[in-house]
């Protein structure tokens, strides 16, 4: 077996989570991702709302794929290997903190850009955004606990079972999509009563 194949085999052996709730969350991700892309197609004529839901759908897709593949494990393994090969292993903690700060900054910048571009339609997706905020909190805790960020580690200790956050956020987004796609559409199709003639 080549070194690359051995590296990939070790990553795949460490990735994934075979617990019952992990598979429930993975299945819910799949359902929510399908619904979000269906809704994104439905509203493609409304550019700000379409952009917002494209961003949300892409974020959900990335989170869903990462749920079982654990790309953060691949990044950590790759980073440690490079640090060892280049002699920077003695600065591993500093590099780990810097990587966490860079990733967090990029995520924050992307979120800020989307919110500014789509500020006119934020009120029309406030429930889904609330669920997304919970998922972002979960992501912050996961990245922070891996990179040794003290605030994230304290939050993980307080919340105890952070995967409940992930499930809660997904459930809120799922409920909002059901409303947007099915219930809200039916409400728009209901015939409006004619106003009573003025006497």
Describe the structure.
With 199 residues, the protein is mainly alpha-helical. The protein has one domain (3-181). The chain contains 8 helices and no strands. Helix 2 packs antiparallel against helix 3 (47-69), helix 2 packs parallel to helix 8 (163-189) and helix 6 (126-147) crosses helix 7 (150-159). The protein starts with a helix and ends in a 10-residue tail after the last helix. The relative contact order is 0.12. The chain crosses the membrane at residues 20-39, 51-69, 89-116, 128-146, 158-183. Keywords: Membrane, Transmembrane, Transmembrane helix.
| Derived structural class | mainly alpha
Q: Could you say which overall geometry the principal axes of the C-alpha atoms support?
A: globular
Question: What sequence of helices (H) and strands (E) makes up the elements?
Answer: HHHHHHHH
The total count of helices amounts to 8
Low-confidence stretches: 192-199
How many extended strands?
0
**N-C termini distance:** 89 Å
Average pLDDT score: 76
Overall number of domains = 1
The major β-sheet equals: none
Task: State the helical fraction.
Answer: over 70%
């Amino acid at each position: 077996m080549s070194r690359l194949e051995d590296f990939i085999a070790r990553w795949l052996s460490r990735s994934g989570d075979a617990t019952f709730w992990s598979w429930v969350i993975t299945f819910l991700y799949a359902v929510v991702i399908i619904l979000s892309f269906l809704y994104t197609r439905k509203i493609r004529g409304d550019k700000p709302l379409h952009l917002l839901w494209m961003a949300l759908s892409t974020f959900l897709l990335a989170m869903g794929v990462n749920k079982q593949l654990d790309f953060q494990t691949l990044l950590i393994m790759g980073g440690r290997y490079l640090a060892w090969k280049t002699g920077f292993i003695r600065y591993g903690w500093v590099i780990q903190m810097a990587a966490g700060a860079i990733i967090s900054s990029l995520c924050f910048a992307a979120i800020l850009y989307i919110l500014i571009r789509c500020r006119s339609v934020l009120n029309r997706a406030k429930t889904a955004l609330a669920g997304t905020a919970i998922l972002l909190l979960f992501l912050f805790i996961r990245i922070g606990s891996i990179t040794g960020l003290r605030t994230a580690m304290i939050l993980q200790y307080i919340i105890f079972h952070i995967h409940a956050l992930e499930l809660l956020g997904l459930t809120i987004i799922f409920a909002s999509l059901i409303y947007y796609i099915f219930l809200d559409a039916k409400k728009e199709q209901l015939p409006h009563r004619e106003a009573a003639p003025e006497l």
